[in-house]
Specification:
The chain is an alpha+beta fold. The chain has 2 helices and 5 strands; from the N terminus they run H-E-E-E-H-E-E.
Length: 101
């Protein structure tokens, strides 16, 4: 039989561990070019050649309004629980590559 002390310890331990597990994932950064944007979804072609679907629901609209195909950006976000897309947090526009004179 479980004592009150053991139960309280398990309960408090579980409550303290839950936020740690949720926040354990560090944000990831993806640099690349916009392939397309429609509604709250953007597809990014990374510099490594990966095509990523980005959910824009948590990104401020002013960060992606006006973006078009081939614009260079850096997307900050997390991988979704099912691993199928990136949950975007922010998008930073970057300058195009410059060729030295």
């Amino acid at each position: 039989m479980i004592t009150r002390r053991e139960f309280a310890g398990a309960l408090i331990g579980g409550l303290l561990a839950a936020p740690l597990a949720a926040g354990a994932q560090s944000p990831l950064y993806y640099a690349g070019r916009v392939q397309w944007i429609a509604g709250s979804t953007m597809v990014l072609m990374t510099d490594e050649g990966w095509s990523l679907r980005v959910d824009l629901k948590r990104v401020a609209q002013n960060e992606y309004s006006g973006l078009g195909s081939s614009d260079r950006v850096i997307v900050t976000g997390f991988i979704s629980e099912d691993g199928n897309y990136v949950i975007g947090l922010s998008i930073a526009r970057t300058r195009a590559e410059y060729q030295s004179p």
